[in-house]
Structure formats: structure tokens, C-alpha cells
Amino acid sequence: PKPFHDSRILLSALSPSPKVQGTHPDCSIVLYFQQQEEECLERIRSESQAPEFPGATGQEGCPTEWDGVSCWPALPRGRARALACPDIPRVFKQSKALIQRNCTESGWSLPSPPYHSACQLESLGSNNDTEAKASYFVTMKVLYTCGYSTSLAALLLAIGIFSCFRKLHCTRNSIHIHFFTSFILRGTAVFIKDSVLFSDESLDHCTMSTVNCKAAITFFQYSVLANFYWLLVEGLYLQTLLLLTFTCDRSYTWGYILVGWGVPMVTVGVWVVTRLQYDNHGCWDDYSSLYWWVIKAPILLAIFVNFLIFLNVTRMLAQKIRSPDISKPHKQQYLRLTKSTLLLIPLFGVHYVVFALFPEHVGVDARLCFELVLGSYQGFLVALLYCFLNGEVQAEIRRNWGKWQTSMESNVFNLATQDFTA
């Protein structure tokens, strides 16, 4: 059945723009009407096979009809039916007004009064508010795009520095490289998710359910999990150094790799199987789903363990620094690593724990600022702390720069000497 003009006006006022909305509860309105339409169409199919209903073969009257907003049950000719406004919390104001339609010789009449008159909407904001909100989201996207681009460039440069200089090859810097890689994956996943979900404005990704969008969300969830678990590995490694009295044991490396990459892989695998079996709807970006806790719980666990490591490392460090048995070079070397890691642990986890205590629709603006804008620059901060401000890295770069300058001066001198003697 073709929707009436009034129902289209109402739906256009309710439906969120795919550019600025994406997940529940914003999409709940669209999904509500989708569910109501499916139920109504199923009812129409079943009644079309029963000859006693009006509108069926040989029967006079108006058959059951979906008009885009409400499902109107079958009615004999000359009768009228009244329905209340759709019951959607925080969308319609409580009203006792009824909408009536008559079954005439030409079929169903138009709704009287019209939907947009009878069903008073909650305040949705003016056109200026809508434009301001759209502009706000565009600004946010520009900011986090710049942030992730800056982070990716800094992280790739940092990995190149650690890889090029042989003197920097050690377990500590190997863990840093894995940590940097998790940030690169996270930034790449954000760009992939944006390109898949928001590349076409004509698509309503509230109801999108394609393999590509599910794969993009799965990759994004894996990269976020890996990011948090490699931060956990940084904390575990720092604690191991302090417990082993500053001795480096390479036998732990594979264990760190299993924690950093393996645990997220298993977690995301369980989440994918769970969604396929029990909640294979939409694009799997519904953070209000109960199955979201399959991802959320391991992240909160990693943050909680890291917080305990934060407290324990602070305690052990205070004891080690006071100890006269520790040499000064060891103190300086690991004090730098400790400062970096202890700064990152609360920086990465505190806001996530705070927001985890509230529903997903609470504090959306603050959540976006922390997770998208400020979070996009975390990779740059990590590269700055662990590489660019690292005294060992700076010394190695200066040493190799000096060797390169000496070699160039020697080559120039040899060329000049050859020209002179010739």
C-alpha cells in the first residue's frame, strides 16, 4: 500500500539523518516503524487467504492496510475506525486524540485529523538547530580525521625509527612497535568504517545489514580491543621489569603477543558467533544490545587490571628508587619508561570507565569528544612519549646523523683531492 502524504511528513520529521545518527536509541524510531510494517504486512498476507475478511475475494469492504505510520485492520464498507497515535516514548506527547478513517466505496479515506495535527511530537528542534547539529558533526569528523591522520603519520615514523636502528632492537621497543601497530589498526578501522557506513547519503544504515558493514564493524571492534590489550601488555611488561629487578627476559615475548593479539581475536570471534546466532540484525553497531557486553566486559577488565598495575608499579617504583643497590643508569632508563606508561594508563582508561556506567545515549557529546576527537590524537601522544622524546632514541639519531655527516664530508674531501691531483 502506498503511504499517505501525512504519514510521509511524520516519518520525515522522525527519521534521523544517516550522516549524523547511527546507532540506537536514535535508530529506534526507524526500527519501530519497520517492525510495525512487517507485522502489518504479515497480517495482510494471512487475511488475504481467508475469504471472511473484508477486501478478500468476493467480499465488500476495506482490507487491512499499512499507511506508513499505523496498521488499519480490515473494515466493512460504511464503517469507521479510530486509532491512537503510535506509542513511542520521548517522541510523541501523551495525547488522547484519536485518528479516524472511514471505509468508503472508493476505499479507505484519508486520516482525520491528519497525523501531524493529532499526534503532537516532542520538541525535536528547529531547522536552525538541525543545521547547527549537522555542522557540529561535520566539524567533529574533520577534527578526528586530522587527529587520526596525524597519529598514523607519527606512528609510522616511530616504527621506522625503531626498525632502522639496530641498537634500538630489544624486547621493550618490540612491545612498543606492537602497541603502535594497534593504534595504526584502530585509525585505519575508523576510516574504513566511515567509508562503508557513511559513503552514500541515500543509504539508511539504521537498517543496513550487509557483509561489508558487518566486517567493517568487526575489524573496528578488534582494533579497539587490541589497542586496550597492548596497553595492558605495556603495564605488564613494566611490572615484570620491576619484579625481576630490571632484568629483561625474552621468554615472556610470545606471552605478550598472545595477550595483545590473541585475546582480542578470541573475544571478537565469540562476539561474531553470538551475533550470527542470536542477534544478526542491522550492521552490528547497536551498542544498546545485550551482546555488546561480550566486547565491553573484556575492555573493562583490561582497564581494571591496568589500574591495579598502575597502583602496584607506583608502590614498587617508590621502593626501588630509594634502594641504594640500583645503579643510576638503570634508574634513569626505566624511570623514563615508567613515566610514559603510568601517564598512559589513566589517560586511556578513566573516561571509558566513567562512560561505561551510563547508558549509551547519555552524554553523547562528551563521549564523542573523548572517544573520537581526543582519542584520535592518542596515537600521536604514544609516539611522542615512547619514541620522539625518548633519550635513547634521540642519542641514536644524533649518533647516526653525526656518522652520516662525517661520511659525507669525507666523500667531498676525497672528490676535491682527486680533482686537485688530476
UniProtKB/TrEMBL annotation:
Pfam families: 7tm_2, HRM. It is a multi-pass membrane protein. PROSITE patterns: G_PROTEIN_RECEP_F2_2 (PS00650), G_PROTEIN_RECEP_F2_3 (PS50227), G_PROTEIN_RECEP_F2_4 (PS50261). Keywords: Cell membrane, Disulfide bond, G-protein coupled receptor, Glycoprotein, Membrane, Receptor, Transducer, Transmembrane, Transmembrane helix. The keyword rRNA-binding does not apply. GO terms for molecular function: G protein-coupled peptide receptor activity; peptide hormone binding. GO terms for biological process: adenylate cyclase-modulating G protein-coupled receptor signaling pathway; cell surface receptor signaling pathway. The chain crosses the membrane at residues 142-163, 175-192, 228-247, 254-278, 290-313, 334-358, 370-389. Residues 39-123, 140-390 form the G-protein coupled receptors family 2 profile domain. Belongs to the G-protein coupled receptor 2 family. This is VIPR1 protein. The lineage of its organism: Eukaryota, Metazoa, Chordata, Craniata, Vertebrata.
